[in-house]
Amino acid sequence: MITLETTIGGRHFDNCMMNAAGIRCQTNKDLDALVASKAGAYVTKSATPHKRAGNPAPRMHELHLGSINSMGLPNNGLDYYLNYVVEDEQKRPDSTNFLSVAGTSLEDNLAMLHQVQDSNFNGFVELNLSCPNVPGKPQVGYDFDRVNTVLNEVFQFFTKPLGVKLPPYFDLVHFDQIAEILNQYPLTFVNTINSIGNGLVVDPETEKVVIKPKGGFGGIGGISVKPTALANVRGLALRLKPEISIVGTGGILNGQDAFEHILCGASMVQIGTQFGYEGTRVFDRVSQELTEIMAHKGYETIDDFRGKLKTFDD
Ligand code: RRO
């Protein structure tokens, strides 16, 4: 009997697949559709203390090999998402879901986490340290001292399960440096990767960029980011203490992509760009495809192969 169930921080999930923050999770209607789907959990659109309209349109563009976006954190504000997840927990007390927060300053993040700490919310908080699209606000995840400061401040008072959403890193020394910081804290999970920040897509016909904000610069997602995502999942899985689970995000379109993320060390996988294109059916399809791969290989649970990627040195 093959199962796609997984465990993070002692919490059980029936399916190891879910949406990635930002994709079809901004409204109650979006979240209701995720609850009704085969996804093992959902994550809410990254929240700021107050509702935000985000950047001007066009701010997302479909690419042959993925997507570029500069949404600029459009969201309904923390109260909206906190109310949703708390009410959902009352209806489904055994489920664990993810509440994403993305303050544009340390003060905002601390204020939001105080509010979450004081609430009845019992799920996971995903602290987004990697939004690439707010003009004038660099991604915190690329400033290692700042990451350390943020986590140090947060864990002075925050006692609920917390993870961080990281930007992609591109040098093994950076994996070493970020892991050394993350390992000092009681994190429940690390989610890697957010979109590859500040790519540029050019339309040769019109000789113009394809999105309006920031002169056309935006975060790249979808199939073209998979090798970077796998490297980050693997790089962190090899360096983080075992109590910190890895959530793998980036370039998952099918069962094979999910399989590769898990092989690199992911306990949960998130589908972003492709979920945007396909809707909740993606979770049925990718679950079916992953199950078939596992059947073919004789695996019954994802723990049978999670993190067991081979190299030429084995
Ligand atoms: O809203 C966005 O522009 C956005 C966010 Br907060 C993020 O974390 N990642 C992304 O690609 N877009």
From TrEMBL:
Keywords: Cytoplasm, Flavoprotein, FMN, Oxidoreductase, Pyrimidine biosynthesis
InterPro entries xrefs: Aldolase_TIM, DHO_dehydrogenase, DHOD_1A, Dihydro_DH_chainA_dom2, Dihydroorotate_DH_1, Dihydroorotate_DH_1_2, Dihydroorotate_DH_cat, Dihydroorotate_DH_CS
Record-listed E.C. numbers: 1.3.-.-
Positions bound to FMN: 45-46, 128, 165, 193, 222, 250-251, 272-273
Entry note: cofactor: Binds 1 FMN per subunit.
A GO term for molecular function: dihydroorotate dehydrogenase (fumarate) activity
Gene Ontology BP term (one): 'de novo' UMP biosynthetic process
Location of the active site: 131 (nucleophile)
Leader sequence residues: none
Dihydroorotate dehydrogenase catalytic domain span: 4-294
Family: Belongs to the dihydroorotate dehydrogenase family. Type 1 subfamily.
NCBIfam families: PRK02506.1
Function comment: Catalyzes the conversion of dihydroorotate to orotate.
Name of this chain's protein: Dihydroorotate dehydrogenase
Organism (species): Secundilactobacillus folii
Name of the gene this protein is made from: pyrD
